[in-house]
Amino acid sequence: MTTPRRSATPSSSREHAALTGAVTAPNYAPLPVVVAEAHGAWVTDVDGRRYLDCLAGYSALNFGHGHPVLLRAAREQLERVTLTSRAFYNDRLGPFARDLAALAGMELVLPMNTGAEAVETAIKVARRWGYQVKGVPAGRAQIVVAAGNFHGRTTTIVSFSTDDSAREGFGPFTPGFTVVPYGDADALRAALTPETVAVLLEPVQGEAGVVVPPPGYLAAVRQACTDAGVLFVADEVQSGLGRTGATFACELEGVVPDVYLLGKALGGGIVPVSAVVSTREVLGVLTPGSHGSTFGGNPLAAAIGHAVVGLLETGEYQERAAKLGVQLRDRLEGLVGHGVQAVRTRGLWAGIDVDPALMTGRAACERLAGRGVLVKDAHGQTIRLSPPLVVEPDDLDRAVDALGAVLDEAGR
Ligand SMILES: *Cc1c(COP(=O)(O)O)cnc(C)c1O
């Protein structure tokens, strides 16, 4: 066994990366950047180098690092009470849930912590709703999901992943899921049976590389679910809360699902906060003792989540994402055919397919980091861009310039 000596205090980026690599499980391959501080859209590493954060914690940092309103809400709550458990009430959960439900046009909120927990919760609720309300025979409930999905990392969720690296060695898997191609409404409709209780989809597939479905797809899914008496569960953990230029990505298609799953940005980048937001008919199938979470709905999370809802109520961030999204799309489209094979955008969110003749997505991310821009690759050739919604237009331009320079360097 080799454990680094306690006395060897790391100081440089290289030393921190080596220490972290030596003492944490190898389930990540981080870029060699060691962040020590961050404000707004900018992070500083332990060596004092500054980077524009164009990943924003996979959209958990939609409002940027250390947003003053969110920090104030967190600080004030830290001094009052941070955890009660749901064995008691706290004075933060009610106002948070009321305003989040109103923001979503729904009735009830079930607070959890991580996105995966929100997904797991929705699976349980949809199944129970199927048995109690729809009348599906016991143990027969089916949930239809899409190929290329990303809904989290639990055993049940990876059971219906189509990504081998997420599943290999983790079986046996949970039954009860049917996978259909993403973006094909006819295939989805054909997969619905009397035992189907829900369709679970991302309105834009984030981890798949910002895959935007064809126009009309979400509306057709909505109609198919309504016709078949099936719940439409929209996983907006990443697409929701401003990223796409609307509060919810479903809105852009004029679609209202039966259930929203929220997470990531709901915690303001400060604490994990997730939620299942739906109607009384759906969430009302739960009874005391049937589901829960030690930390879900804690007053610190609720205070921060409430402040996040407050930021979204003005529409300012959604508008900013829409406006900056046009700028981003226009700039990125200029790269297509010049080292970039395809670009997909939705608001301030982009998937960029780098020409494999030039370099891998990973290599592009490394070279961008060398130029002071942090992004993350997805599935080999794709780089995904999701800067904080507070990013300055000039900085956004500079990030695209840096990508152009990286492609030039590779001889596009
Ligand atoms: C990130 C993500 C999740 C999982 O969230 P965790 O907080 O990492 O568990 C679920 N669904 C989607 C669409 C996501 O992007």
UniProtKB/TrEMBL annotation:
UniProt similarity note: Belongs to the class-III pyridoxal-phosphate-dependent aminotransferase family.
Pfam families: Aminotran_3
The protein, known as: ornithine aminotransferase
Listed cofactors: pyridoxal 5'-phosphate
Lineage: Bacteria, Bacillati, Actinomycetota, Actinomycetes, Geodermatophilales
Top-rank EC class of the record's enzyme: transferase
Highest taxon listed in the record's lineage: Bacteria
The keyword Amino-acid biosynthesis is annotated on this UniProt entry: yes
